[in-house]
Amino acid sequence: MTGFLRRPMLLMEQANLRTGLRWKLSAAIALVAGLVAIVLSLVVHNAARVSMLDNARELANDRVQIAQRNYELNRRPNFPNVKVDDPDLPQALREKVEDGRMGSDVTDHGGLSDIWAAVPVKNGHVLSYHSHLPDRSVGMMKDLDSALIIGSVSVVLGGSALGVLIGGQLSRRLRKAAAAANQVAKGETDVRVREAIGGVVRDETDDLARAVDAMADALRQRLEAERRVTADIAHELRTPVTGLLTAAELLPPGRPTELVLDRAKAMRTLVEDVLEVARLDGASERAELQDILLGEFVARRVAAKDPDIAVRVVHESEVTTDPRRLERVLFNLLTNAARHGRPPIEVTVEGRVIRIRDHGPGFPEELLAEGPSRFRTGSMDRAGQGHGLGLTIAAGQARVLGARLTFRNIRPAGSPPDLPAEGAVAVLWLPEHAPTATGSYPMMPSGTA
Q: How far out from the chain centre does Cα 258 lie?
C-alpha cells in the first residue's frame, strides 16, 4: 500500500513545472517558425530572381533579333552592346548558335549576372548581345531580401511571443495542478485538482486533473476502508485483551505469571497504539492549545519519565501547543531512543526546537528516506524489536500540532556513508505561530530531512 501511494505522488511532484515548459515551447515554436521563414524566404528569393532573369533574357533575345535584321541589311550591328564574333561569348552558347539555333544564357561574374543572347548570321558569323541585370532589378532584389529578413525576424519573434503566451498558460495550469496534488498528498482530502486549475478550457490538463481527482478519491476510499477495518479489529480486541490482563493479574505469583502479564501488557499497548493510529488516520483528532514554557515543560516531563536523561535548555521560549500531544510525541521519541539506541540520551531545547539524540547505530536508511512507516521495524541493528508504531504516532501527533518532525544520523565530517553512524537525532520543530489547522489527517508517506 505504501508503494501504491508513493508512486503517483512522486509523479505529481515531478510534474511541478519548474523545468521551463514555457520557454521550451517558445523555443520550439520559434525554431519551427524560423525554419519555415527561411525556407519561404529562399523560395521567394529564388522565384523572384528567376523571374527577373527570364525577363532579362527575353529582352536580350528581342534586341539581338532586331540587331540581326539590321546586320543583314547594313552588314553592321548598329545596336548597343551587340558584337560580331565576341570572344567573351560563353562557349556553350557559342556551340549552340553554331548549330544554327538562337540562344541565350546567364552567367555570374564578380557577383553580377551577365545576360547573353546570340543568333547565327551569314558567312558563319555569330551576332551576340551582352548586358547586365538592370540596376533597377538589382535594387528590387535587395529590397525584397531586406523585406524577407525583416519578415522572418518578425515571424520568429511573433512565434516566440505566442509560445510564451501558450506555454505560460499551460505552465500555470500544470503548476496549479501540481500544487493541488501536493496538498492531496499531504492529506488535505477536500482539495480538488480540477477546481484548482480553474478556467473553461477542456484540454489534456483538464483530463490530467480529472484522473488525479479520481485517483485521490480511490485512494481515500481505500484508506478509509483500511482504517475502519483496523479500528474495528483493535476495538474488538480491546475487551478480550483487558479481560486477559485482569485474569493474568489473578494468577499466583511466579515467573510464568510475570511472562503472561508482560505479554498481555504488550498486547494492550499494541491495541491502544493501533486505535490511536486509526484516529489520526480518520482526521478526527483536534489539538487543545495552551501557552507553555517549552524548556520547563520538557525538563519536567523528561525527569518524570527517566531522571537519568539530561535536558539542556539553550534558550527558553513560550509556545502555543497541546501539552498532552506534545508529551506523547516526546515520550515516543524517548522510548524509541532508549529501545533502539544506546545511552547517553541527550535532550536539547533551543527556542521552539526540541532535539533528542542517542548514541546508537542510527536510524535505518528506509526511515530517513521515506519517514516512519507503521509495522516496519527497520534493520536488526536498531529496530529489531517493537511494532513500528511509536514513530508513526509521533509523526501523526506532530502534524496535529502543526509541527515538523525530522530524523537524521550523526556521522563524523567527511566520513563515507557506509561507516556506522555515531547516533541518531530526532528534531521536533514547533510552529512559530499558533497553528490554525489543528486537525489530523491521513498519514501518507513523506520524505524527512
A: 57
